[in-house]
Design goal:
Helices cover 39% and strands 17% of the residues. The protein is α/β, with parallel strands linked by helices. The strands form 2 sheets. The chain has a 7-stranded parallel β-sheet with strand order 3-2-1-4-5-6-9, with helices on both faces. Helix 4 links the parallel strand 5 and strand 6. The chain starts with a strand and ends with a helix.
């Protein structure tokens, strides 16, 4: 399978890249050159021509590239990357007959719900800030491209991708953690699962508190996390 991975030099991209390189015919793209990946395409999301060329011959796009901090300038950085850039990518996918886009969304699309309940994809969006709001836009734009143009689109609302030795407070991780191994498996399921036209799922590992519903990822994608929060952080306070 021919897969394009955007944001390949980022935090999650560096996790997915080696595993996907062993499994697929992988093409990578990032705006920052990565010396460890000499075949990487260097392009900005606002460059429509570069994205169209990057999508040529591709079957599935895994789209990680984005501005992911509310501290980034909204007009100068978040809008060009997360809104304009996504539009250019989906247009390129449509023009190049890409079959599916797997979109890295965020749990910040619904993070204003209380911590004592399980949030599902049926709940109304309640974004944390501008970054989360742009991901909600991305999910809606993906739905439009699916219904108008037949592009398959799967949005993964990632909880908190963190390494096994992370210093994040366990109280946060017990509701949000997505481990590196489970991250690879979740995105693999999203790339390969047949018969998915449009879907939104949450992405976490096996956590003691199911703040973000795992049901959708299990039923739609066949994803079952392997890493349990207690095994790595259960003894910490």
């Amino acid at each position: 399978m021919k897969v394009l991975l955007t944001g390949a030099a980022g935090h999650i991209g560096r996790c997915l890249g080696p595993a996907f390189g062993n499994r697929y015919e992988l093409r990578t793209l990032d705006r920052q050159p990565n010396p460890a990946d000499p075949g990487q395409l260097v392009a900005d999301l606002t460059d429509a021509d570069a994205l169209r060329n990057a999508c040529a011959g591709i079957e599935v796009i895994v789209h990680l590239a984005a501005s992911s901090s509310d501290k980034s300038p909204f007009v100068a950085e978040i809008v060009p990357n997360n809104i304009v850039g996504l539009y250019h990518l989906l247009e390129a996918a449509r023009q190049q007959s890409v079959r599916r886009v797997v979109f890295a969304s965020t749990a910040q699309a619904t993070s204003r719900y209380p911590a004592d309940r399980t949030v599902t994809t049926l709940d109304p969006v309640r974004p944390e800030g501008p970054y989360g709001a742009t991901k909600v836009f991305g999910e809606a734009l993906g739905r439009m491209y699916h219904e108008a143009h037949g592009l398959e689109f799967i949005a993964i609302r990632i909880g908190a991708f963190q390494a096994y030795d992370t210093k994040w407070p366990p109280a946060w991780l017990r509701r949000l953690w997505l481990s590196p191994r489970d991250c690879v498996e979740l995105f693999r399921c999203a790339v390969e699962r047949p018969g998915v036209g449009y879907a939104i799922v949450y992405g976490t590992s096996a956590l003691p508190v199911e703040y973000l519903s795992r049901r959708e990822a299990r039923e739609i994608l066949g994803y079952e996390p392997r890493d349990r929060w207690e095994e790595y952080f259960g003894g910490q306070r």
